[in-house]
Amino acid sequence: MILETDIPILECRQVSKSFGAVQAVKKVDWKVYPEEVVALVGDNGAGKSTLIKLIAGALLRDEGEFLIKGKPAHINSPEDAFHYGIATIYQDLALIESRDVVQNMFLGAELTYGPFRLFLNHKGMENEAKRILEEEVHSRIPNVRQLVMRLSGGQRQAVAVGRALLRGGEIIIMDEPTAALGVEQTREVLRLIDTLRSKGKTVILISHNLSQVFEIADSIAVMYHGEMVGTRRVKETTREEIVSMIVGFANDALGVA
Amino acid sequence: MDNQTRLSPLFGRKILGFLISGNWMYLGIISLCLVYAFIAPNFLSLQNLDNILATASVTGIAVAGWTICLASGQIDASIVGASGMLSVIAGVLFERVHVPFPLVLVIIVGVAGLCGLINSIFILEGRIFSFVATTATSGVFLAIGMLVGQNKIVYINTPGFAEVILSRPLGIPVSTWMLIFTYVVLYTLLNHTKLGAHIYATGANRSAARLAGVSDKRVIRICLIIVAIVVAMAALIVTARNRQTAMFGVTATAISNINDVFLGALLGGASLYGGVARLEMNLVAVIFLAIMSNGLLLMTLPPHWLVTLKGIIFVFALTLDTLRHRIKLNK
To answer: What is the pTM of this model?
Structure first.
């Protein structure tokens, strides 16, 4: 049970972002508690993707600050976000099609050896990639030297998740991970999220699929027109309430956050 | 799995695979050698082998640098102007200012690096498409060369420049040593270092690479500097061989024809779409092209045939590249 007194693993304070005249994210205050699966929901254009891009360092916020475990975090680039243990899996997965599984998983965090750590440790990376995929992601990728372009949708997700784990991600952000997947692969991804939670990771999940959200998430945060409407515990809310928040009919008087 | 290939018969796919993989060039080299051995006099002579290597080494060096740049997703058209300018600067420094050759070498590398840096500013900060930006800078480089050389050819007569580059340690010309050196270093860089992995990734999908924490701008900047320095080496070899600097209007370097470099890189499997490069195949491609041109010259065919043939091969290589990009052939 999460208590109000717990320190959030991630906190946004008055975070804003505009694109020209469009204010995509308006003074968002948001707390994410550790070892939870938090779903971030909202209509198209509600600012979900922009908010997570700000957290992931892919976009630069105009105002506001982030706190990781109660301490201010200066997230100005994807590398900074990795540094604070935030790993993001984008909707398109941001994998390099013409590179193999190992190269994709280690991109930006390659293992090296030798003078000035100049040379790539191909064998070491391969073994570590295999280990993570088998033991932590529980996925079936027979050949880690296969090019990503030859993998199935579920396998790609596994590679992306493996990469996030490999970067030491404590907070794993997933942007609509099941949007383009079939039934079986969606199951696979939901299982993956469950695995991540059981490993003590915090997962932030963007989704449009409310039944999926109610099935997998611990709490649900709702955005509407760039504002954070509120956060609800899954056990203490109903679909009707969430839907009314998504369409902008609810106030946050009863909210937890 | 991509099954959109319309070439359903296995045989067709095999031929396509053979062409796309570049393995046809081995066959090409062997058949060219056989044909030329019969119809072109002196093709098999030791002197001619030397000629072939000489042609191949200069283009080969430039192609290696160019491929690295192409792998990072950028096209550097400024090598024409840069090589002309560097040739002149080297000649003026050595002949007129009497700078000792090793120092000339250092200065040339420095100036080349600066050229790459200037290109990178236009491409990265100005966000101009690399081919356009470097076409523009190429002209400026050439003009700077004209200014430095006061529109005159500088002849290299003082000993110590040409002699060094034309010498043959262990019986192998310096240019060939440089070719070997360039390929070993760049091959290792591309395939066995972090930078290499980042070059491929940046070229294949720049935004994805950035999201993975690759500093894409730094990678591209380094590649532009590498290609400029590598091209500088090629320019020095040509300057030494001709014992004169580049002529204006026409840069008398082997790099004067960017098509040759382009062709070598493309035939060697580098992709215009970025992120793909096989340096070892580049070497095969350059040797293939050198043998082809050499044989045609020996047969005293009118030169326009060579140009035509190269043009046809260019189109062929471009088609292969596009095919390779579109059809993800199962290997």
So the answer is: 0.84
